[in-house]
C-alpha cells in the first residue's frame, strides 16, 4: 500500500520496450496525494509512454508500480499482467484525458460522460446523470449536454473529455498533452479548467509542452530525456537551476 507515506503514485524502475527499442529505461517517479507533477521533454523522450504505463494502456516490461493503492510488479520472466478485477479497480481510481479527446461521436455530451460511471462503476443511469451534470457544470459545458461532439469546438470537446474523466471520481487524473490538438485561441479555456482542478487539490500527472503552465501549476516537474528522468524538482529548480545540461538546453529552447 502506497498510502502510508501519502503517495498516490509510486513508480520504481519502470522499463518499456518495443522490440529492440527501449522507450523507458529505469524510470522512477513519485506523485504525492493532492500534488500536480508535470512531465516535460522533447518529442520521443518517452513522456506519453510513461503516462500510458500508469493506467496500463501499456504494460511495462519490468519494474513496480503502486497507483491509488493498487500494487503491480512487472518482470521480464513472466510478463505479469494484472487480472481483470485488479485492472477494473485501477481504472476506477485513475482517469486519463487524451490529446485527441476520444469522445464517442454517436453519443451526446452527457451520454459520453455517463457511459463509464455506469459501465465501470456500476452506477444507475439516474446516479450517473446527476454526476455527469455536476461535472459538465464544473467545466462550463452544462448548456451543451444534448449536443453531439461533431458540433463542438476542440476546446469544448476537451472540456467534455475532462468532465468524463472527473465523473469516474478518480484518485488520480492523467493528462496527455491535453492542449496539443487545439487551436491556440482555445488552449487557455482548457488550461483554465485544469488550473481550477489543481486549486481544488486534485492529484494530477500531466504531460505538457505548455511550459508557463507547468511552471505555474506544478509541485514538481520531471524532465524526460531518451527514456530517463534526467532532472526532477520544483518548477523553480527545473526551469532555473537544473544541473542537467540537456534540461537547461531544452528549457531555454522552449522558453
TrEMBL record:
<dbReference type="InterPro" id="IPR003593">
    <property type="entry name" value="AAA+_ATPase"/>
</dbReference>
<dbReference type="Pfam" id="PF00005">
    <property type="entry name" value="ABC_tran"/>
</dbReference>
<protein>
    <submittedName>
        <fullName>ABC transporter ATP-binding protein</fullName>
    </submittedName>
</protein>
<keyword id="KW-0547">Nucleotide-binding</keyword>
<comment type="similarity">
    <text>Belongs to the ABC transporter superfamily.</text>
</comment>
<dbReference type="GO" id="GO:0005524">
    <property type="term" value="F:ATP binding"/>
</dbReference>
<keyword id="KW-0813">Transport</keyword>
<dbReference type="InterPro" id="IPR017871">
    <property type="entry name" value="ABC_transporter-like_CS"/>
</dbReference>
<dbReference type="InterPro" id="IPR050086">
    <property type="entry name" value="MetN_ABC_transporter-like"/>
</dbReference>
<keyword id="KW-0472">Membrane</keyword>
<dbReference type="InterPro" id="IPR030679">
    <property type="entry name" value="ABC_ATPase_HisP-typ"/>
</dbReference>
<keyword id="KW-1003">Cell membrane</keyword>
<keyword id="KW-0067">ATP-binding</keyword>
<dbReference type="InterPro" id="IPR003439">
    <property type="entry name" value="ABC_transporter-like_ATP-bd"/>
</dbReference>
<feature type="domain" description="ABC transporter">
    <location>
        <begin position="9"/>
        <end position="251"/>
    </location>
</feature>
<dbReference type="InterPro" id="IPR027417">
    <property type="entry name" value="P-loop_NTPase"/>
</dbReference>
